[in-house]
Amino acid sequence: MVTFIIRRLIQSAIVLILVTILVFLALRLLPGDPVRMYLTSNSMQELSEEQIEAVRREFGLNKPLVMQYFEWIGGVVRGDLGISILTRVPVAQEIARRVPITLYIGIISFIIGLILGIPAGVIGAVRRGTWIDSLITTLANIGITIPVFWLGILLIYFLGLYLKLLPVMGYTSPFTDFWMSIKQIIMPVICLALFPIAGNARQARSSMLEVMRQDYIRTAWAKGLRERAIIMRHALKNGLIPIVTLSGMGVGTILGGSVFVETVFAIPGMGRLAVTSVLNQDYPYVQAITLIISIMVLLSNLLVDIAYGWLDPRIRYE
Q1: Which CATH class is domain 99-283?
Q2: Taking a C-beta distance cutoff of 8 angstroms, is the pair 208, 122 a contact?
């Protein structure tokens, strides 16, 4: 197991390096100049080329791309994610303020996706061919196809503007006002949790149908065990491996969906910061956010692989 974890960590490090290189180069290939955007937003007068070049030297943008990349990576290793070009605020300071907001909404959405999705899929498999199975399958198919931003706009209109039940935007820390925080995250959580619920339900149903046809399940029925014992002790654990895989992939889906959700609901999280930073070509923010999201996704995939050995003792890592 230790050898496997070390090997996976090395592979993850290689993937992380490739991602940082691609993002770093892609940002520099975009049309526009972040220095000119910064100067024109802070000054209405005509700027000379000497002034523009001075600012470019200040942020190190006049150096070759290879040198810029290695200087940024060196700063990341030391815990320095750089300085924002537009706001001149340390990137690490701003991200530290926004990451808890994104994680708060994302973790709740992830947990709800598991709590509602897996039981729904199990019920659909156990009651295959009944009206409840048809209902669960239909709702799951609809949930997978609904765009997050479109659902968010509908929720804002009906629950916020028409029925006036929930606030349509903003974020309040649960430590500041718990009930206001809950009301503000209900619609974002619905948007983020819908795809995990639908995906987990479909996968759980498919896995359970496969497991329920196995010989050892028929043997358990023949022994006279109760339905609950057969499902919980024998079928569910063996059917969880594909579900765990999908859940690990769902971490990236939730983090990606936060970009749309935080933009629609004006939540000051990491996803909204990523959108504004890309539009403003604020390189340090985009690079740091991509790095953090990549680390989260790689760690979730590693945890999924480790969980395989616990769920299925037949799996051994060499």
Answers
A1: mainly alpha
A2: yes
The residues pairing with 83 across neighbouring beta strands, listed in sequence order, are: 90
Instruction: Label residue 1 by pLDDT band (50, 70, 90).
Output: low
Asked if residue 214 has pLDDT above 70, the reply is yes
Round to whole Å and give the CA distance between 242 and 207. 7
Residue-range domain boundaries for the chain: 99-283
Instruction: Give residue 125's identity as a one-letter amino acid code.
Output: A
Going from the C-alpha of 84 to that of each of 34, 42, 94, 116, 284, the distances in angstroms are: 10, 14, 9, 41, 6
Residue 84 confidence class, pLDDT cut points 50, 70, 90: confident
In this prediction, residue 44 has a pLDDT band, given cuts at 50, 70 and 90, of very low
How far apart CA 149 and CA 245 sit, in angstroms, is 25
Please give the model's pTM, rounded to 2 decimal places. Answer: 0.81
Nearest Cα residue to 105 out of 161, 174, 166: 174
The per-residue pLDDT for 318 is 52
Spatial distance between the Cα atoms of 126 and 139, rounded to a whole number of angstroms: 17
What residues pair up with 90 in beta bridges, in sequence order? 83
Q: 285 near 14, Cβ under 8 Å?
A: no
